[in-house]
């Protein structure tokens, strides 16, 4: 090599070569040097990059080991290596290596065990496997087969390591996945910070499952969880204009088996967001209890109304969609204060996406509001 490297530097360089070959950044070829004449070259592969420039290394096809090679240093060491590998593979089957008669437990260094733990954690996280899957008999047999194969073709013929000493406990897997997730979250934070410099409006689509040990899936709890997640990514939910979308309303209305409501809210040919509030209000009005009704009907209506209040999560986006649609823009079920809040929210959104200038204040929305609420008959 052009600059004299230490033994450790050469070994590091060999590991780098192996890694680049696996990644496809380097490739091997049977093409010999122009001056090569020895037969041992038939057992060696040269290594080059995508530009055709050769690395000062070759790979033995018998043992797969990476060997240093430069023309000026000669090929005697390469010849001796190939001869040694050829003798090992040509041993009679009746000749048993000495390690077959000696059973010796080997000690796995902590760094190597940690590498296996990280690999198992990624296996569980990336492939959506349970933490306990690494303790499965089939998984252990797979790992043991890989170890046996590497031992069969490896050069270090020591005692075969057992898969039991390598695989971590599921608790260790769970803890490691959290550590890896935090590392990825930090990387994601950096990406989000750059992207959010140009972002004015953020939309978040949410859905999750409630298990029996957590609190109810109410709108208040949901928004608290979402804000907590946003803050974990260094996003201030009060600083950005964020729109939250949820499928709870449509799912619940479909569950009521009301054909008219479910058909309108499930339409895929036209917008339906503006219909959510009117239909929810209509469903609530249908649940109003009347004095002359049977106790069973009263109880049934009460239970349905409680389910509507608990399951349906309405957001400001529903108000804005209802106001902006020509059919529902009057907001007849709203008080004047509620209407004003909707007008303000609409103005804020329009400013955010640059539909109106911030200094135009309330001109556009106020004009629409007056048109929507005024129903006076003109004087003749």
Report on the architecture of this protein:
- It contains 13 helices and six strands.
- It has 380 residues and is an alpha+beta fold.
- It folds into three domains: 7-89, no CATH class; 109-176, no CATH class; 199-373, no CATH class.
- Strands 1-2-3-4 form a four-stranded antiparallel sheet, with helices on one face. Strands 5-6 form a two-stranded parallel sheet.
- α3 (110-126) crosses α5, α7 (248-255) packs antiparallel against α8 (259-265) and α9 (273-286) crosses α11.
- The radius of gyration is 35 Å and the shape is elongated.
- The model is unreliable at 211-215 and 248-259 (pLDDT under 50).
Summarize the structure.
With 380 residues, this protein is an alpha+beta fold.
Detail the topology: elements first, then pairings.
Blueprint: H1 7-23, E1 26-29, E2 44-49, E3 54-60, E4 66-68, H2 76-89, H3 110-126, H4 137-153, H5 170-196, E5 201-206, H6 219-232, E6 241-246, H7 248-255, H8 259-265, H9 273-286, H10 295-311, H11 316-324, H12 336-352, H13 363-373
Parallel strand pairs: 5-6
Antiparallel strand pairs: 1-2, 2-3, 3-4
Helix pairs in contact: 3-5, 7-8, 9-11, 11-12
């Amino acid at each position: 090599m052009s600059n004299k490297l230490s033994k450790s530097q050469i070994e590091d360089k060999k590991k780098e070569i192996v890694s680049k070959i696996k990644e496809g950044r380097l490739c091997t070829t049977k093409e010999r040097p122009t001056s090569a004449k020895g037969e041992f070259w038939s057992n060696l592969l040269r290594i080059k990059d995508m530009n055709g420039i050769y690395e000062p290394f070759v790979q033995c096809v018998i043992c797969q080991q990476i060997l240093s090679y430069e023309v000026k240093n000669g090929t005697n060491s390469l010849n001796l290596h190939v001869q040694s590998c050829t003798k090992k593979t040509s041993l009679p089957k009746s000749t048993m290596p000495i390690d077959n008669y000696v059973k010796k437990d080997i000690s796995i260094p902590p760094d190597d065990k940690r590498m296996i733990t990280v690999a198992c954690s990624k296996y569980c996280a990336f492939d959506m496997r349970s933490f306990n899957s690494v303790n499965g008999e089939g998984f252990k047999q797979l790992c043991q087969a890989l170890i046996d194969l590497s031992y069969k073709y490896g050069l270090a013929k020591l005692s075969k390591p057992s898969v039991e000493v390598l695989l971590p406990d599921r608790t260790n897997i769970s803890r490691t996945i959290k550590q890896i997730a935090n590392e990825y979250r930090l990387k994601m934070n950096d990406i989000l910070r750059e992207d959010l410099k140009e972002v004015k409006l953020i939309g978040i689509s949410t859905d999750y499952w409630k298990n029996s040990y957590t609190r109810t899936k109410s709108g208040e709890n949901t928004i608290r969880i979402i804000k907590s997640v946003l803050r974990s990514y260094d996003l201030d939910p009060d600083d950005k204009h964020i729109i939250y979308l949820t499928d709870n309303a449509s799912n619940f209305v479909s569950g009521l088996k009301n054909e008219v409501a479910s058909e309108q809210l499930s339409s895929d040919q036209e917008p339906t967001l503006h219909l959510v509030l009117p239909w929810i209000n209509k469903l609530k009005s249908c649940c109003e209890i009347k004095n002359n009704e049977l106790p069973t009907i009263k109880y049934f209506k009460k239970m349905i109304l409680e389910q509507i209040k608990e399951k349906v999560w309405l957001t400001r986006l529903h108000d804005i969609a209802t106001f902006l649609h020509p059919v529902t823009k009057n907001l007849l079920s709203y008080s004047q204060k509620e209407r004003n809040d909707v007008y303000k929210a609409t103005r804020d959104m329009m400013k955010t996406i640059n539909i109106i200038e911030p200094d135009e204040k309330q001109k556009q929305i106020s004009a629409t509001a007056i048109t929507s609420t005024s129903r006076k008959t003109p004087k003749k």
